[in-house]
């Protein structure tokens, strides 16, 4: 037994010695490759953003599997800053507002991408005031052409990484029981983390050619069956798209001013309602009669502005920034001419209610619309519209308010929309006009749009101002609009016309027609698609309000009121339960803004991106090649994030499986659920924090009320004492 233990110890010592020798040999060969001046893929100066978000110029040398960063081009021993290990990195193009071409190297697991040795054996890099980030590196080339060269060179270096591993880990191991002629070559790569060995033969020129062919060639059968190739870095998967059906034919209201006479049977209800409110009161908490309701949700109503979204694609293709904001203004004005049939108000969305639809463009692209009611008091709706192939995203958070002014009502939409042109990095900030309904008590009920609207791009400096004018009491016309386009303080163009008719612009090239919704133009409205009612969840607008809509269609006001009251009572019961509401597809940012959690602000890549698809409110991009080494299940559950994210991922699936138009038993694919225990603990923790915050708010409210009551009591007592004192002084002076 002792002899066996002794042999085991000797064997372990031998293994440790072989391990140290192998590790030393690998380090020496790595340093040899670093020092070899002939092994260079590309070398040039790049701007690199540091941890302090400031840009500095560095000289970068790209070698197979390595990116070496120096302070200066002379690249002396003391100028070395760091060495990036490319076999740990992923490469993506990064959108940027500044000039040049921006790209990013990052570790998909947010770990370090840096090696611990320099080309001359340095252990510590040169000191910099703006240190570089640990898990990613954001670089900027001086021009688009130079940036594309760097992207191609880095892709080549990635391909060389596998070949470099084979050549650098070649090891001759002698068999103790054989002679010199029976020697064999083995290749091992030692890793400190897990100690795995990868074995291979000596790499010849033929092997190297095969290595690159395996990376570049994609077998046809992989495209057909969607399986993942063992010799390719491309990950493929099938992504099931939602079952879309074309929306019913649109119903347009009459041309001209929007007016309506109130029926005699409904006048008593209006007078009863008016007795409960006072001028200046917010009507968001007032229960309105069903006969004034338009049979659809406010979330769906907001989608009326995007039937001409193809006009944004024209702005994306426009090189002149002045003409670009003219086309953006044209798109904005194209959303107002459709009017409801009569003076109707859409349903107030229920907290947690959602709506989705899409429009198909003539160029084959698709615009997706996602909306959710994220708050009830105050009523806040968040929306996200995306068409990466056409080059734009739109996001917004809208707070709906209603004000009563005696003989008129105003529906005010507080909030701004952000229209982003992805390829140009431009964002246009837009606010919305308010709707004014007058003649409630005296005269004919008439609806108009009013208020000042601004469309502004900070990057270009251009700004459009539109004034929606209300008809004056004497003279004038309905639905008039005036505006201008300015660059700084310089007025470049003027706009005038009717927002539901012809609008003209007078600019440097003279006066011309900007927008005119003729019958031929109306025919070009993009076809809208929605989800079949049977496939909708219980919280989607059409299904949630279906009983109210059916009753209104049947002109059964009592049934409509009953169903509407039931929905509102359920909402009040949930609010009183004390459980905070959690949004589904939007997250709250600083302030009152919300953002779509699956937003993707990358420009469209014609060579890689195939199509945008939607499943269960998740809009993703199907691409040819992967930017992440995660497995198919991880890819399906990953989110496309905005530019602010430091770990962008991409769905990769060359084949799209479409559902039958009217499926019966199909269910949408759900993203993989993380560990249930962790998720449950996080949920309980968030719930406890929210309850604590709610309790603190209630306690603060009680404290404020107590202070106010105390101050009021002190004021009353002081007033009484002062009155008594004045009374006695008056009597004394009279005597």
Structure description:
- By secondary structure, the protein is of the alpha+beta class.
- Helix content is 29%, strand content 28%.
- The chain contains 14 helices and 34 strands.
- It has a seven-stranded antiparallel sheet, with helices on one face. Strands 18-19-22-23-21-20 form a six-stranded antiparallel β-barrel. Strands 8-9 form a two-stranded antiparallel sheet.
- α11 runs antiparallel to α12.
- The longest helix is centred in the C-terminal third of the chain and has 59 residues.
- About 16% of the residues have low confidence.
Sum up the structure in keywords.
7-stranded antiparallel β-sheet, alpha+beta, 14 helices, 6-stranded antiparallel beta barrel, 34 strands, about 725 residues
């Amino acid at each position: 037994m002792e002899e066996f233990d002794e042999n085991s110890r000797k064997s372990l010592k031998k293994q440790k010695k072989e391990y140290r020798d192998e590790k030393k040999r690998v380090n020496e060969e790595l340093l040899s490759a670093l020092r070899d001046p002939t092994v260079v893929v590309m070398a040039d100066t790049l701007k690199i953003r540091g941890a302090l978000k400031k840009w500095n110029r560095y000289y970068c040398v790209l070698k197979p599997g390595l990116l070496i960063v120096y302070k200066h081009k002379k690249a002396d021993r003391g100028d070395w800053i760091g060495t990036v290990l490319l076999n740990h990195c992923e490469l993506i193009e990064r959108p940027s507002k500044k000039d040049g071409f921006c790209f990013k190297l990052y570790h998909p697991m947010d770990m370090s991408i840096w090696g611990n040795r320099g080309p001359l054996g340095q252990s510590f890099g040169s000191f910099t005031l703006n240190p570089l980030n640990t898990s990613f590196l954001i670089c900027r080339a001086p021009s688009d052409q130079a940036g594309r060269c760097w992207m191609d060179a880095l892709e080549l270096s990635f391909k060389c990484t596998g070949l470099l591993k084979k050549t650098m880990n070649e090891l001759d191991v002698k068999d103790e029981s054989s002679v010199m002629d029976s020697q064999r070559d083995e290749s091992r790569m030692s890793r400190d983390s897990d100690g795995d060995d990868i074995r291979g033969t000596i790499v010849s020129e033929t092997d190297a050619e095969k290595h690159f062919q395996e990376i570049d060639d994609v077998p046809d059968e992989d495209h057909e069956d969607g399986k993942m190739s063992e010799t390719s870095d491309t990950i493929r998967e099938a992504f099931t798209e939602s079952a879309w059906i074309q929306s019913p034919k649109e119903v347009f209201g009459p041309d001209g001013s929007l007016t309506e006479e109130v029926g005699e049977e409904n006048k008593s209800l209006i007078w009863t309602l008016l007795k409960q409110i006072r001028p200046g009161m917010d009507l968001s908490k007032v229960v309105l009669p069903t006969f004034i309701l338009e049979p659809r949700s406010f979330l769906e109503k907001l989608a009326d502005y995007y039937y001409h979204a193809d006009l944004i694609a024209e702005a994306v293709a426009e090189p002149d920034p002045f003409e670009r904001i003219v086309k953006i203004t044209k798109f904005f004005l194209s959303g107002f001419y459709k009017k409801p049939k009569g003076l109707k108000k859409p349903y107030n969305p229920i907290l947690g209610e959602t709506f989705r639809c899409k429009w198909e463009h003539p160029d084959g692209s698709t615009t997706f619309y996602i909306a959710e009611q994220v708050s009830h008091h105050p009523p806040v709706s968040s929306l996200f519209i995306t068409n990466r192939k056409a080059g734009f995203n739109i996001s917004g958070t809208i707070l709906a308010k209603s004000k009563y002014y005696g003989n008129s009502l105003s529906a005010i939409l507080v909030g701004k929309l952000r229209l982003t042109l992805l390829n140009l990095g431009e964002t246009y900030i837009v606010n919305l006009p308010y709707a004014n309904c007058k003649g409630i008590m005296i005269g004919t009920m008439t609806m108009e749009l009013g208020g000042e609207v601004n469309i502004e791009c900070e990057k270009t400096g251009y700004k459009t101002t539109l004034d929606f004018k209300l008809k004056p009491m004497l003279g004038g016309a309905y639905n008039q609009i005036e505006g201008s386009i300015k660059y700084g303080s310089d007025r470049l163009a003027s706009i005038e016309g009717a927002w539901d008719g012809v609008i003209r612009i007078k600019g440097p090239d003279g006066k011309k027609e900007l927008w005119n919704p003729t019958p031929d133009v109306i025919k070009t409205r993009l076809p809208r698609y929605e989800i079949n009612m049977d496939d909708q969840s219980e919280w989607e607008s059409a299904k949630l309000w279906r009983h109210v809509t059916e009753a209104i269609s049947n002109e059964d006001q009592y049934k409509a009121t009953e169903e509407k009251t039931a929905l509102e009572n359920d909402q009040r019961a949930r609010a009183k339960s004390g459980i905070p509401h959690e949004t589904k597809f939007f997250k709250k940012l600083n302030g009152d803004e919300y953002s779509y959690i699956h937003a993707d602000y990358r420009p469209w890549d014609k060579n890689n991106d195939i199509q945008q698809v939607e499943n269960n409110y998740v809009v993703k991009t199907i691409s040819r090649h992967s930017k992440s080494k995660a497995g198919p299940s991880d890819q399906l559950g990953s989110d496309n994030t905005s530019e602010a994210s430091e770990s962008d991922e991409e769905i990769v699936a060359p084949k799209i499986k479409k559902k039958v138009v009217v499926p019966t038993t199909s269910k949408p694919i759900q993203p993989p659920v993380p560990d249930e225990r962790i998720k449950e603990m996080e949920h309980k923790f968030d719930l406890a924090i929210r309850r604590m915050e709610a309790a603190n708010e209630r306690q603060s409210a009680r404290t404020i009320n107590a202070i106010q009551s105390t101050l009021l009591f002190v004021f009353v007592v002081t007033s009484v004492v002062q009155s008594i004192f004045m009374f006695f002084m008056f009597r004394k002076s009279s005597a």
